[in-house]
Design a protein that fits this description.
By secondary structure, the protein is α/β, with parallel strands linked by helices. The chain has two domains: about 250 residues, Rossmann fold (3-Layer(aba) Sandwich), CATH 3.40.50.300; about 120 residues, Coagulation Factor XIII, Chain A, domain 1 (Distorted Sandwich), CATH 2.70.50. About 25% of the residues lie in helices and about 35% in strands. The chain is built from eight helices and 18 strands. The strands form four sheets. A six-stranded mixed beta sheet has the order 5-6-7-3-8-9, with helices on both faces. A hairpin with a 2-residue loop joins β17 and β18. The protein is globular, with a radius of gyration of 26 Å. The protein starts with a strand and ends in a 20-residue tail after the last strand.
Length: about 400
């Protein structure tokens, strides 16, 4: 049924105790006093904290909810409650239909059983008959690309093999609700792309809850978003881009550069963008801008100019671009002086997000590195659209015929 609400979460809260001994004592006291975990919300006792506090949302068939936030924000606790692994202290969860969950690497698999036996076990838990599982078995094995290893015990699988089998079972069983945690980060790129193609195919019949630190992935599939921070909702809504913006803004703390290598022949004294004042150490730049990068180098022992190059990394530390500025003259220079470099970077078409520039000085292009430092300059690209890919190229429609 269209627009059917498959997941409804009302006032969900869960608290934990930081100390095992205290936690056991509280548990005994609660049993004696007759307090049942989800009966009513109570005040925190010493050493207790809210893992999640007052979470509310509805998810309909065909919708995908992105859950984002730093480690410790409460995402995994929320997922475990949704999947029935732990009980809440307050609130209510209503889920209709079958739930396929990919929460922790290998979770739900019996390690001493083979991949094939685990497929039957998981299918049975989801309520499928053996005949129904038989009909899906080959499709699951093919999707997981485990034909040669399907009868091997799962305990001997690599992390990538476990992810492939877990996703294959969760997706091919056609669940009403599909819960996906960060486990997709373990797979190789080819398999991840195959997973997203499958999610696209099953999404119209499914409600998907997707947890990730990879914002391009979140923007790729999610129709609504919840940004969590220390157990509470910081942003919630259908404006996925706004939620991702707030997530990125939480990183605006001037992450310090880190020296990777030096032979003590030079050092980088200054790195900045001309005419732009940084906010907490990060330069705000609009998409399509042309900027001037300025570097001041202290020469300690070199007799010739170094060759300067840059690598741009995104927030997930993936290299997305290299810069080899043209026109560099590797002339003789004086010892113990300062060298100023200025490069113009034309029309930045990086998609929205935070990027870090790694500065590299070498004898010549890609040969004999003298000095390398990560996060020499950090920039935040502003744009109204959140992209799945690292580049948003400038284009315009010049001809259209109907």
């Amino acid at each position: 049924m269209d627009n059917e609400v498959l997941v409804k979460v009302e006032g969900l809260s869960k608290k934990f105790c930081k100390d095992l001994k205290t936690s056991l004592w509280y548990g005994v006291k609660d049993l004696v006093s007759g307090v049942r975990g989800s009966s009513e919300e109570r005040e925190l006792r010493p050493k207790e904290f809210w893992a999640i506090k007052d979470i509310n949302f509805e998810l309909k068939r065909g919708e995908c909810l992105g859950l984002i936030g730093h480690n410790g924000a409460g995402k995994s606790t929320l997922l475990k409650i949704l999947n029935g692994l732990i009980n809440p202290d307050a609130g209510k969860v209503t889920i209709k239909g079958r739930v396929g969950a990919l929460i922790e690497l290998g979770a739900g698999f019996n390690p001493i059983l083979s991949g094939r036996e685990n497929i039957y076990n998981n299918g049975a838990i989801l309520g499928f008959s053996r005949k129904e599982i038989d009909s899906k078995l080959e499709a699951i094995i093919d999707f997981a690309e485990l034909q040669e290893f399907i009868d091997m015990p799962v305990q001997h699988y690599s992390s990538g093999m476990k992810v492939r089998l877990g996703f294959a079972v969760a997706a091919q069983m056609e669940p009403d609700v599909l819960i996906i945690d960060e486990v997709l980060a373990v797979g190789d790129l080819g398999f991840i792309l195959k997973c997203f193609k499958t999610i696209d195919a099953i999404l119209p019949q499914t409600a998907v809850i997707f947890v990730s630190h990879n914002m391009p992935m979140v923007s790729r599939i999610c129709s609504q978003i919840i940004l969590m921070d220390k157990g509470k909702v910081k942003y919630q809504g259908e404006n996925v881009s706004k939620g991702i913006d707030q997530y990125y803004n939480s990183f605006l703390t001037g992450e310090e550069s880190s020296l990777v290598y030096t032979d003590n022949s030079i050092s980088l004294e200054e790195a900045f963008i001309e005419g732009v004042e940084p906010i907490n150490g990060i330069y705000q730049v609009s998409w399509g801008d042309t900027i001037q990068l300025n570097f001041k180098i202290k020469n300690l022992t070199l007799s010739k100019m170094p060759y300067i190059s840059l690598v741009i990394y995104d927030k997930e530390q993936r290299g997305v671009a290299e810069i080899f500025p043209t026109g560099q003259q590797l002339n003789d220079i004086e010892y113990k002086g300062f060298i100023d470099f200025s490069f113009k970077l034309n029309n930045i078409y990086l998609s929205k997000g935070i990027y870090h520039l790694t500065f590299n000085a070498s004898e010549s292009k890609s040969f004999n590195t003298y000095y390398k430092i990560h996060k020499a300059i950090s920039i935040k690209i502003d744009h109204e659209e959140q992209m799945w890919t690292p580049f948003l190229l400038d284009s315009e429609l010049i001809n259209f015929k109907n």
